[in-house]
Amino acid sequence: MLRDKEIVLTIDGLNKLEKELEYLKTVRRREVAQRIKQAIEFGDITDNSEYEDAKNEQGFIEGRILTIEKMLRNARVLNDNDVQTDQVGLGSRVLLKDLESGEKLNYTIVSSAEADPAEDKISNESPVGQALLGKKAGEEVEITVPAGILRYRVEKINK
Q1: pTM across the whole model
Q2: Residues 64 and 98: beta-carbon distance below 8 Å
Q3: What's the rounded Cα separation, in Å, for the pair 66 and 159?
Q4: What is the rounded CA–CA span in Å between residue 53 and residue 60?
Q5: What is the pLDDT of residues 2-44, one digit of tens each?
Q6: Nearest to residue 96, comparing CAs of 62, 126, 120?
Q7: Within its chain, how far is the Cα of 8 from the centroid?
Q8: Residue 158: which of 105, 102, 106 has the closest Cα?
Q9: What is the pLDDT of residues 128-155, one digit of tens each?
Q10: Measured distance between the N- and C-terminal CA atoms of the chain, rounded to whole angstroms
Q11: CATH (one of 3.10.50.30, 3.20.20.80, 3.90.550.10, 3.30.499.10) for 82-158
């Protein structure tokens, strides 16, 4: 039997998934069940778009619940001792300097399960994340992305 892939999470990532799971189970399930009940009260459900929409949403919610539960079962949580500051690794907070513009960028390297570019959390599997892994402060890196070539210098690595 194949084992599920281990998922590495930061404490923040674990907390975010647990909160999402709780919300889906306690709030969203109830809301969609109420929508299904109301749609059934309209009568014939064979051509009832409200019923179909609610059932589809219910399927999505239940699928997401199963996905999160599986992720949590297979999670390994990084603690402070796991996060390196001598080189970039999972959980590292990295200060970069764009060598073209001089702009400073802060990223946290996380697993794909908790990557969120809006929160400056980039996946270790992304082109930028892969290129940064193992780099030390002062080192420069060139990264080929669809938009062209990015050139950064690692300024600082924190936990």
Answers
A1: 0.80
A2: no
A3: 31
A4: 11
A5: 467 889 999 999 999 999 999 999 999 999 999 999 888 877 7
A6: 120
A7: 11
A8: 106
A9: 999 999 999 999 999 998 889 999 999 9
A10: 37
A11: 3.10.50.30
In a 3-state reduction of DSSP, which class is residue 1? coil
- Phi, psi values for residue 129, rounded to 5°: -60, -45
Q: Which amino acid is at 74?
A: N
Looking at the domain 7-77, which fold is it? Helix Hairpins (1.10.287)
Q: Are strands 121-123 and 148-158 parallel, antiparallel or unpaired?
A: unpaired
From the list 84, 85, 106, the residue with the least C-alpha distance to 97 is: 106
Rounded to whole angstroms, the maximal C-alpha distance in the chain is: 69
Distance CA 65, CA 24 (A): 7
Residue type, 64: R
